[in-house]
Amino acid sequence: MPEMTHSAPLSLPFMKMHGLGNDFVVMDARTQAFEMSESLAKALADRRCGVGFDQLAVISDGAEDAHLTFYNSDGSTSAACGNATRCIARFLMDGSGAKTLTLTTDRGALHAVDQGDGITSVNMGHPQLDWADVPLASAMDTLELPIDGAPTATGMGNPHCTFFVDDVAAIDLAVRGSELEHHPLYPDRTNVQFAQIVGPDHIRMRVWERGVGITLASGSSSCATAVAAARRGLTGRSVRIDLDGGTLHVDWREDGVWMTGATMHVFSGKLTQSFMDSLS
Q1: Same structural domain for residues 112 and 165?
Q2: Which one-letter DSSP state was computed for residue 94?
Q3: Rounded to an integer, what distance in angstroms lies between the CA atom of residue 54 and that of residue 60?
Q4: Cβ contacts of residue 167 below 8 Å, gap of 6+?
Q5: Is the torsion defined by CA of 206, 163, 200, 89 positive or negative?
Q6: Is 146 part of any domain?
Q7: The dihedral of CA 190, 79, 157, 46: what is its sign?
């Protein structure tokens, strides 16, 4: 019999990854061109009717090894996403055999290093410590903001607000995080962290992510918390940070804030044409 042929529906590949439970959809525009939009990002973020993610990352060609663009689950964009950067760096290094690479983002060029045994380090760049760079709404000392609890403001390509508390388990993160994300001192909204100092090189931290909500982990939040703790003399510049989803190691060096931890590529799939058509 002659072979039967038919036109297969168009599909759009994606990967599902996570860093300590901070989960991502990653799409590679280098292999199949497509146009990401706020509506598509929000539809993909739906954990019942889409794929589900904390952030979405698009890989495209760039001046270095690749360029990354990040979207939050509400469809808004972010200049930085530390755990997604580590996940993608791991994926690209596994594919090429390279031990180092450089990824460009709206935050700038970020360098990644394979530490062996599936562990990846990324230099998230220098922290932004001036009020205008975070950014805040007006000039003030970023070390202790005029907010109840005297949090510290830090920019890591996205804004952060870090509270140091005696017991992170006692914080109603859903209520406090939602309120503080939209605080008037932060014109672009903010990520919110509650951190408990366990020792001079050990922090327990929980996070509310801007445009997402409660997440099990956050790379840029971990970097911001480590910087804030060191600035306030609560820890040294190299710390272990225990999050709800696992542990990251953050080292604030002369060349930037390095973040190290495990990643996971969970599965790869394809978006169907029926799903894409349902958005039009």
Answers
A1: no
A2: H
A3: 20
A4: 196
A5: positive
A6: no
A7: positive
- 240-251 residue pLDDT tens: 999 999 999 999
Residue 132 in any domain: the answer is no
List phi, psi (to 5°) of 175: -80, -50
| pLDDT confidence of residue 279 | 87
Instruction: Report the alpha-carbon distance of residue 210 to residue 178 in Å, rounded.
Output: 9
In whole numbers, what is the pLDDT of the chain averaged over residues? Answer: 94
* β-bridge partners, 208: 192, 214
State whether 208 and 119 are in the same domain: no
- For residue 219, give its domain range: 152-254
Q: Does residue 135 lie in a domain region?
A: no
Quick: pLDDT tens for 139-148. Answer: 999 999 999 9
The enclosing domain of 226 has a CATH number of 3.10.310.10
- Rounded Cα gap, residues 20 and 245, in angstroms: 5
